[in-house]
Amino acid sequence: MDLETIRTLIEFVGRSGVSELVVGENGTIVRISNDRSKRTAADPKPQRGRQAETPAVDQGDRPQTQPADGRTVKAPVFGVLHRAPNPGARPFVEEGDVVEVGQSLCIVEAMKVFNTVSAHRAGPITQIFASDGQEVEAGQPLMEIG
């Protein structure tokens, strides 16, 4: 099963009311679950690989504005955001860093597939909307390049 098909299935389950989807092809079985009913306030962060609603990000006094089109870096798929290349490492970028086209900004992990998100334009990182370890939706703004 190709990666694009898996991404499409993940997005479908994330948007729909389907609680679980199992698909098999050529001996490969993919199971995607969206178990929103078992989450409680005491368990705000679901296990990795689990599909669940995205919790609101507490950004303190930061404005919750959406940047103009062309400046926003969006999540390519539903998954868990990783701001660093591996645990304990320095994040790829911080607010204020100047990036070049094609530079790695973060990783979105979906079903143990790591999707590198790269800069589509050069400029400074003016705002970061999602935090490390947060589940993000496909198309959700992750950061802004000024």
UniProtKB/TrEMBL annotation:
Any one of the GO CC terms: acetyl-CoA carboxylase complex
One GO BP annotation of this record: fatty acid biosynthetic process
Residues of the Lipoyl-binding domain: 70-146
Sequence ranges of Basic and acidic residues compositional bias: 33-46
Pathways per UniProt: Lipid metabolism; fatty acid biosynthesis
Keyword Lipid metabolism (UniProt): yes
Record InterPro entries: AcCoA_biotinCC, Biotin_BS, Biotin_Carboxyl_Carrier/Decarb, Biotin_lipoyl, Single_hybrid_motif
Region (Disordered): 33-73
CDD domains reported in the protein's UniProt record: biotinyl_domain (cd06850)
Molecular-function GO terms, alphabetical: acetyl-CoA carboxylase activity
Keywords noted in UniProt: Biotin, Fatty acid biosynthesis, Fatty acid metabolism, Lipid biosynthesis, Lipid metabolism
One Pfam family cited in the UniProt record for this chain: Biotin_lipoyl
Family annotation (PANTHER family): OXALOACETATE DECARBOXYLASE ALPHA CHAIN
Functional note: This protein is a component of the acetyl coenzyme A carboxylase complex; first, biotin carboxylase catalyzes the carboxylation of the carrier protein and then the transcarboxylase transfers the carboxyl group to form malonyl-CoA.
Identification of the protein by name: Biotin carboxyl carrier protein of acetyl-CoA carboxylase
Organism: Rhizobium fredii
Lineage: Bacteria, Pseudomonadati, Pseudomonadota, Alphaproteobacteria, Hyphomicrobiales
